[in-house]
Amino acid sequence: MISTLALHWHRLGGLMPGELDEGELAWLVSPHRHLSLLARRRAVLIVNRVRLFAFLFAVLTPLWSIVDFVVFPFQLWSELALMRFAACVAFACLVVCYRSNGDLFNAYRAIALLFAIPTVFYVASHTLLTFYQLSGISAAIGAGYAFLPFVLLGGLAIFPLTLIETFVVASPILICQAVSGYLRWAAMDWPSFAGAFWLLLLIAGVAGLAGICQLAFMIALVRQAIRDPLTGAFSRNSGMELLDLHFTNAARAHAPFSVAFLDLDRFKNINDEFGHEEGDRALTAMTSQLGHHMRHGDSLVRWGGEEFMLLMPGTSLMQAQVAIERLRAAGFGTRPEGGPITASVGIAERKSDRAREWKELVEIADRRMYRAKENGRDRVICEDQPTALSA
């Protein structure tokens, strides 16, 4: 059974060759293991599309009152117009007031608000229309109100959502449709209702598939954008974004946050004596070695050339020092002439160094790294006093 599931999972990955790694397929099901940079970019994109969708509804919702005025009795039109005005104001507030802060729960709240407004309008208008006996064109326009859930579920296609997220968003709409059928149990045309509900499920499925395909494409693009193409470490730009994210989170939670600035010793000699290809091999071997021994949750950033930054959220200065010494003991790889690759390291921590922003934290670590160079290389410095941990 397990082998069969694994086979189907592998075949699913083959449907998207070159887009996702096999380990990233699980990201299409749940956002639990998404990279923080991916989550942040996705949150911004979701909120922007929520605002776009809300703008469209804010414009179209009151315009339809013209049609209602032509075909409905004045009393019904006035009540529907009042509901449309309230919905329009709610959509406009969503467009004007809501902004993304890069947090995924903030994006979830935006989607919930976007879908709650028309859902409430659908329930209220549907209830109101049941009190009127409509015929002819009025009955046809009134029946059109029943198509609002189809529009909402179709709109899911513009959001890069996981399978679980799509299910959570679509479920309230499907439940409302089922409840409305239950309330009209006695006079229900069950074949028509069953067909409409089945169509809703199909639309939800297609919209969910479209959202998952968007997410897969986004994962591939983000992976390419945030990674250094040679070493696979985070690029400098994405590293600065991570620094800002971790530093802000640590400041809010009054938690420690350490960074280690690593500069490979005498690396220029490798390029000068053996060529840049050997230098590239040494860099990829070093980052691969670090990747195998880094703690889960730490991030390696290629800051430039042979300089790297190790980000260690939730880590005190002493814990960071222990982690770096463990990495040094495991080694950074081998130089082309056979000797070990060594590094000069400077460590800084947000609380103990009283850093007010991440740039200041990086400057402190950078300064200590240069002191490690001046003191003989292949050592770690984690304080401003002239003391060092020799190899």
Automatic annotation (TrEMBL):
Top-level taxon in the UniProt lineage: Bacteria
Listed transmembrane segments: 50-74, 80-98, 110-131, 137-159, 166-185, 197-222
InterPro entries: Diguanylate_Cyclase, GGDEF_dom, Nucleotide_cyclase, Rev_trsase/Diguanyl_cyclase
EC number(s) on file: 2.7.7.65
Reaction equations catalysed: 2 GTP = 3',3'-c-di-GMP + 2 diphosphate
Enzyme class: transferase
Stored PROSITE patterns: GGDEF (PS50887)
Gene3D superfamilies, A to Z: 3.30.70.270
Pfam families, alphabetized: GGDEF (PF00990)
Domain GGDEF: 255-385
Protein name, per record: diguanylate cyclase
Organism (species): Massilia terrae
Keywords: Membrane, Transmembrane, Transmembrane helix
